[in-house]
Amino acid sequence: MKGLFITFEGVEGAGKSTQAKMLYEYFNNKKIKAILTKEPGGTKTGLKIREILLSHTDEKFTGISELFLYEADRNLHIENVIKPNLEKGINVICDRFIDSTLAYQGYARGLNIELIKQLNNIATNGLKPNITFLIDIPVEEGLKRIKNERNIDRIEKEDIYFHKRLREGFLKIAEEEKERIFVIDGTKDKKEIFKNILNILEKKFTNYLI
Fold first, then answer.
1. Among 12, 22, 174, 205, which residue is least crowded by beta carbons within 10 Å?
2. A GO BP term, please (predicted)?
3. Cα 18 from Cα 100, distance rounded (Å)
4. Annotation: binding site
5. Annotated binding-site members for ATP
């Protein structure tokens, strides 16, 4: 792969989407080739899967159902967007990826962690990000942010204990993959957060991007 694969993760309302967009705009201003994408919904078919996953429903929606839909979305995303762009030397910035599935369906939903890792590996054909930024904030703050900003979706409306398990899961994943995942304090001003992200990129990929 010639391009860098950069992902952003975090609990609901952490500000990861804002930081991903800021990085994309920074690259554009610097004439650095990059695309901004997301999961779920990074392809046309993926957008339909996203609607299914996030819409409220009266039917029982199990963790297993979520898991397979997320992995189907991911495989479409890899084959149609992520892999082709990386092979062209275009940097890919992605809002959520494999760590979200591990945190949400694994640690928060309670599904088998090793099973999810195996399915992630199958869906991505072994592709992992070069670097991941985990924007970390207390779940109460994140939920307060989204409540004030928009109508909450099916997953966002889960109880506080779900979201606390989610955060704990993300932090555990980061602890296990310190070389790839960098935990960023999301309670700070968004410009200060972004400056921290750029500093990390500069140190890790000297003369490549910055």
1. 205
2. dTDP biosynthetic process
3. 17
4. 10-17
5. 10-17
